């Protein structure tokens, strides 16, 4: 069984597990299914806005697909969430990626 199928099977048992959805989104990126990955990241972040890692990966995916305005929006949302939760490391990573994009 491949990784996507294993993660989907685990999600059947825990459909709102942010970690599993995030991991599945990363696998879909590897498989070239950007649309499904984006949907999964957005689902995670709408349900669990403090799942900070998904902001970075979603924004980078949007940069890769050429949706720069949405990437900027998600980088900004991620920086706000990281600041709100006190995650300085994630804030710095998001800020560097954001600045690399806009400067």
Rg, alpha carbons: 14 Å
Question: What fraction, in percent, of the residue positions are helical?
Answer: over 70%
Low-confidence stretches: none
**Average of per-residue pLDDT values:** 97
Quaternary structure annotation:
single chain
Q: Characterize the main sheet.
A: none
Q: Count all strands and give the number.
A: 0
CATH architecture: Alpha Horseshoe
List the secondary-structure elements in sequence, H or E: HHHHHH
Strand fraction equals under 5%
Q: Overall 3D geometry?
A: globular
How far the N terminus sits from the C terminus, by CA atoms, comes to: 43 Å
Count of structural domains: 1
Helices, by number, come to 6
Please write the CATH class name. Mainly Alpha
Enter the CATH topology name.
Serine Threonine Protein Phosphatase 5, Tetratricopeptide repeat
Which class of secondary structure composition applies to the elements?
A: mainly alpha
Could you state the CATH homologous superfamily? Tetratricopeptide repeat domain
List keywords for this structure.
103 residues, mainly alpha, 6 helices, Serine Threonine Protein Phosphatase 5, Tetratricopeptide repeat, single chain, globular
Please give the structural blueprint.
Layout: H1 3-13, H2 18-30, H3 34-47, H4 53-65, H5 68-85, H6 88-102
Helix pairs in contact: 1-2, 2-3, 3-4, 4-5, 4-6, 5-6
């Amino acid at each position: 069984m491949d990784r996507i199928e294993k993660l989907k099977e685990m999600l059947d048992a825990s459909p709102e597990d942010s970690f599993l959805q995030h991991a599945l989104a990363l696998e879909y990126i590897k498989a070239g299914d950007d649309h499904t990955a984006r949907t999964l990241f957005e689902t995670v972040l709408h349900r669990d806005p403090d799942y900070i890692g998904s902001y970075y990966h979603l924004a980078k995916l949007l940069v890769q697909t050429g949706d720069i305005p949405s990437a900027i929006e998600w980088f900004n949302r991620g920086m706000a969430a990281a600041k709100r939760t006190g995650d300085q490391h994630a804030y710095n990573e998001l800020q560097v990626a954001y600045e690399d994009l806009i400067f």
